[in-house]
Request: fold
Amino acid sequence: MSDLKIKLEAELENLEFVQSDFHLNALKGGTINSSYRLDTSNKSYFVKTFESDKITLLDRNKLFDIQLALAAKGLAVKPIYLSKSLDFQIDQWLDSPTLDQADISNVTITKSLASALSIIHNTKVNAPELDLPSQWQHYMSVIDIPISASEQQIIDSYGVIWQQACSTKAVFCHNDLALTHVTHSQPSKIFDWEYCAISCPYFDLASCITVNGFSLTDEASLCVFYAQYSEQRLSEVITKVNIMKPLVELTNKLWYEAARQST
Reply:
């Protein structure tokens, strides 16, 4: 049993709404973080531990408040409790299949994701701005590998692209919209807001394409539906998504290498 799970169980025992008679059942988690279903005598909850905080720069108190605001708007499940040490969170339990669990076509999936992205991008929430270049530098410091002059030049050029994109259009974004993060039921509930921020919407689209491993057909379908929902020209959406793809690729590459070295 990990040290974090021992701490989790000890803290749960002292929570009034949990009480001592509880069961933790492991769920399929992310690359680093662990997830559980918490069953008490009269209610169930979702619990997520934050092992990834070893490599990320996340303000868990701020994220809790953002999720609370999103829950009030019907976009997220309600967060119930954030641990004293900020290493796990308890959310309302929701029995609803996510897009990866539903027996639906790829077209329905991309349409649902495009709709979710459009809704998110039109949501007004008090959230921090995503400083992607600083995030890259942080991951590189965790990895602690030498960067060549040519590699640094590329990273610097991506930083300029990022600043230009955000100065042109910055909205509230999810930045990690996997099929597992969106319910099939309507209206959709969206999970896992860890990387939400005021950001470039086309980076959010490119992230969605990458995290779901979309084919060119599904990528095109997502862009078509998003252009319709956001009332933009399709050619403009495709062009701007393609500009963001290398930035998403760099972010993911650095994140996974930092995660690999920290486990």
